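Deliverable D2.4 — example input (structure tokens):
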């Protein structure tokens, strides 16, 4: 499956990685190398004329989006998430909340999450729900009802069900000061320092 890892060291080096074995049971193993090939090409289409048609010289679509945030060309944060097509959507929530909304990294991760299901899924069988939105119930009944009035087809996911973000960073104003934040949903994310 997909996982995500962010690292910052005392020198301010940042790493953001989203390794994904995808479906190891269906990936061929190369015995001489000791690992299996990935199965990410399933995201491309074999039908001609589509934006994601498998074509020489084109980069295939991917959901893997480890992210570095720069300020004045200097890296200040690394973040990312597993989660298929939701990865970019959950990261956008984080970026808007921290860069525009003034949230701390942990507040941004802990705030209610949501994502759309309007576009065809990257993975077979590529389902989509026009005007679909999956929301955490913590958005509140009033907000959710407002979305439904605007024509969104809402799926309630529960209070703490969406998002798998983690993030680390450094304070460029205070050398040596680092921070980490992780998602408590699913009891899979941890921020650890030493």
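Example output (designed residues):
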């Amino acid at each position: 499956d997909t996982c995500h890892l962010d690292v910052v060291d005392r020198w301010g080096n940042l790493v953001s990685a989203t390794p994904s074995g995808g479906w190891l049971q269906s990936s061929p193993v190369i015995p001489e190398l000791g690992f299996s090939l990935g199965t990410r090409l399933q995201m491309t289409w074999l039908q001609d004329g589509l934006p994601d048609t498998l074509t020489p010289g084109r980069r295939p679509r991917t959901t893997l989006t480890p992210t570095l945030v720069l300020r004045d060309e200097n890296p200040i944060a690394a973040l990312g998430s597993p989660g298929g097509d939701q990865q970019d959507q959950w990261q956008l929530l984080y970026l808007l909340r921290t860069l525009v909304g003034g949230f701390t990294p942990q507040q941004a991760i802990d705030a209610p999450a949501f994502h759309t299901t309007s576009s065809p899924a990257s993975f077979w069988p590529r389902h989509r729900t026009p005007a679909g939105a999956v929301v955490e119930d913590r958005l509140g009944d009033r907000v959710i009802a407002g979305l439904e009035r605007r024509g969104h087809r809402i799926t309630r996911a529960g209070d703490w069900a969406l998002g798998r973000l983690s993030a680390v960073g450094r304070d460029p104003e205070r050398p040596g000061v680092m921070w980490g934040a992780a998602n408590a949903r699913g009891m899979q994310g941890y921020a650890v320092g030493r």
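The chain has one domain: 5-187.
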